[in-house]
Specification:
It is a single chain. By secondary structure, the chain is α/β, with parallel strands linked by helices. It has 9 helices and 16 strands. Helix 3 links the parallel strand 3 and strand 4. The chain starts with a helix and ends in a 7-residue tail after the last helix. The protein binds nickel (II) ion.
Length: about 400
């Protein structure tokens, strides 16, 4: 079936590219993907592909392609955009102010539509079931958690997803085993001091000085508490305090994020931020309240066997010269991590750079452009891992 998948994917490119440009013009952020959800559902309906709607707080869609009885594999694409004003100048640029598909999710959703169509066309040869999950709210809100909590993976044997990746040549994929992206958590520290006259600090407890000591002390988590081979990042990214140059304020608020590559390092860092902030504040006669925002994103861990399987499936499809290793995990995060906590699977990086590209705009850049030359490779990757998984091709011992 592999050669048929390649030619079928190539034949679908014009249709999928047109769909991608439509989605790009209508970017919608977390849980607001109503137009996007309707358009994807329209594509599935027009092609006769069965699907259910209303998942993950409303905008999620799951298409189900059933072949002969067998295993079930899930393929996932994210649907949401970002709060960014687009600066690409593309003819099909965003039509919505302050909204942009700057992370390629328009490409991911379009490619999964294409993969669903070609699997549907060849369903007579499919040795099991493929569930194509169109998931809202990958950015910030961890929509993937709701997919798992709603039970969409309860009868699934493996799950795969891909993400376009600047810095990787178009036509290549990169697949790793073990941790491939970090956990992501977000914190807020509120330092309560005692306000007063800027000229009379002895009568006050200055929360800005306390906050400064906390920021400095937080640097010791990575340098002095975490094993050097277990990467962690702690970044204070926002600090707000005060309102006048001659007034010591009552409070100072810091916000930031921390990333880790193992659940143990993640838990240690979470505890350490609270311990250091509260105790440093106490040492300076102030107090600090530490809040962790949301549920955070777990570490994205590719199952070893499924990572090797996906490498083998991609090698069979594209040749070994187009399948790269993941040389190191990234400190960005992905809510596909929730899927891989539930079922084995792998997250695949899809090359997106045109030839001779130097310093491509990063994901989340207002100048990021998804390269349509990756569409056929992405569709074939998704379809290949599904088809090959269902027939136990490339069995990994
Ligand atoms: Ni993304």
């Amino acid at each position: 079936m592999i050669n048929t998948l390649k030619s079928a994917a190539t034949a679908l490119v014009p249709e999928v590219q047109a769909l991608r440009h439509e989605l790009h013009q209508h970017p919608e952020i977390r849980f607001e993907e109503h137009w996007t959800s309707d358009r994807i559902a329209q594509f599935l309906t027009e092609n006769g592909i069965p699907h259910t709607r209303g998942h993950a707080k409303g905008t999620g869609i799951m298409a189900t392609i059933e072949g002969t009885p067998g295993k079930t594999v899930a393929l996932r694409a994210d649907m949401d955009a970002l709060e960014i004003e687009e600066q690409t100048g593309l003819p099909y640029a965003s039509t919505i102010p302050d909204r942009m598909h700057a992370c390629g999710h328009d490409g991911h959703s379009s490619m999964l539509c294409g993969a669903a169509k070609l699997l549907w066309q060849q369903r007579d040869q499919l040795a099991g079931t493929v569930n194509c999950i169109f998931q809202p709210a990958e950015e910030i809100a961890a929509g993937g958690r709701f997919i798992v909590e709603e039970g969409l993976l309860d009868n699934v044997d493996a799950a795969f997803a891909l993400h376009c990746w600047p810095g990787l040549p178009c036509g290549d994929v990169a697949i790793g085993t073990g941790p491939v992206m970090a956990s992501a958590d977000f914190f807020r520290i509120t330092v309560q001091g005692k306000g007063g006259h800027g000229a009379n600090p002895g009568a006050a407890i200055d929360p800005i000085v306390v906050a400064s000591h906390i920021i400095t002390a937080l640097q010791s988590i990575v340098s002095r508490e975490i094993d050097p081979w277990s990467a962690v990042v702690v970044s204070v990214t926002r600090m707000t305090a005060g309102f006048a140059s001659n007034v010591i304020p009552d409070t100072a608020v810091m916000e930031g994020t921390f990333r880790a590559l193992s659940p143990e390092s993640r838990n240690h860092t979470m505890d350490a931020i609270t311990r250091i902030a509260t105790n440093v504040a106490q040492a300076f006669r102030a107090s600090a309240q530490v809040e962790m925002e949301g549920a955070g994103y777990p570490v994205l861990i590719n199952d070893t066997a499924m990572g090797k399987f996906a490498q083998a499936a991609a090698t069979a499809a594209f040749g070994a010269e187009h399948v790269q290793p993941v040389t190191h995990p990234y400190m960005t995060a992905e809510d596909f991590a929730y899927y891989l906590q539930k079922v084995p699977g792998a997250f695949i990086f899809l090359g997106n750079d045109a030839p001779n590209t130097v310093d491509p705009p990063s994901l989340h850049s207002p100048r990021f452009i998804f390269n349509d030359d990756a569409l056929a490779v992405g569709m074939e990757t998704l379809a290949s891992v599904a088809v090959d998984f269902l027939v136990d091709r490339h069995a990994i011992s």
